[in-house]
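Blackboard transcription, Thursday session:
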Amino acid sequence: MKQNTFYLLAGIVGLIEVGLFWLSVVLRNPLIITAGFIMGVGLLYVARMTVTDIREDERAVLISQKAGSRTLEVFWVLFFAVSLGSAVIGFGTPLGLPRPRELPRDFPRDEPHLGYFGIFQMIMLCCIAFLYIGFRVYYARKYGEWDSDEE
Amino acid sequence: MKNKIKVFRAMHDLTQEALAQELKVTRQTILAIEKGKYDPSLELAFKIARFFGVSVEEVFIYD
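(Written on the board underneath:)
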């Protein structure tokens, strides 16, 4: 498979995922998009292995590795902080630690906040992508990706 | 680490693209090594030296 064909396939899979998400919301069935997303990513991984005209050498691998590890180093702090906050909300419900009798007015009630938390997580995932791109650009510049030819 | 890839390349009348194709890397990698922005792996360093028919020490100088 050519690299451009792979990008085309990735676009089609992306559109299908949007459709599945819409279907999931309409049918109120989260399993559709969950299973669909896993299958879509699996399909893209398999398809990527068949790309023949990809040219990736050790420097490109190093740039990807450095950008990935830096993203993880920075992001786990933010993600852990948010998760700790979520844990406090979780333990604040009757299922966790006993709540104080007088709750502050703005303390989260027992309504299901899971969906909103999911949206918040998706926003954070988008932040990961931007952070990764930023680090990738930084390391690509460091290792001479866009240097001019002196020949 | 300094290197003499550009010199050896000129001696063999090779472009960066041609050398990159021989070594199965990208032209940008050859350019980055020549400019000292990227230190190649041992494997690539040996490949480069072997391609020019010299020892690694003749191509790469540790300073």
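Lecturer's comment: The two ends of chain A are 33 Å apart (CA to CA).
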